[in-house]
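Supplementary notes (optional reading)

For those who missed the lab, this is the record we used. Protein: Putative TetR family transcriptional regulator. Length: 207 residues.
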Amino acid sequence: MEPVRRWLVREGEVGYHHGDLRAALILAGIELIAEKGIAGLSVAEAARRTGVSTAAPYRHFANRNAFLLAVATEAGRIMGDQLEAALEAVRERSADPLDQLEAIAETYVRFMITHRAGFDLVFVRELQESEDQALRDAGRRVIDLMLAPTIEVSPDMLRALELNEEIWTSAHGYAALCLTGLFRAEDVLASAPRAARRLGQAASGRL
């Protein structure tokens, strides 16, 4: 079993079920992006990994772009589920929105270093003109989940949006440096939440 597939199955995410070829192909696509980046997404390779002919995926996806759309939508759903779970876990033990900012940063970094993609997959350039509602809903959900704690930190919407952007770009930067091999995963998983807390403290005047 491929590393990402093992992780997804362990986390209760998409798994292979006999007869559900579409879901299996999407899972293979997520694995390919984790290993090779978005440029390495191949419908033929996804077919090989699921043990079907190279023609079989086209019963479910008209072309590579349609396949990419399905993979991006599923990745957005997974990311949204993980953000929601992380935030709920924090809220059970703390009412401090700064703790939620830490959870957002850690979850984002973990997702990106596991899948080699974050917002750059959910909002990948090839799909920017897409009118697909499922993809839009997945992206909107991720944004809303990330934004909610920043509004608690700063009720001023403009400042909350700025804080959200600062935390996202900080977490993304840490994850990118990890993927290049400059930082260790355990280091960025600790540093990104600390940076998010400091940004939240500055925005709320608590520094």
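If you only remember one thing from this example: The chain has a mean pLDDT of 87.
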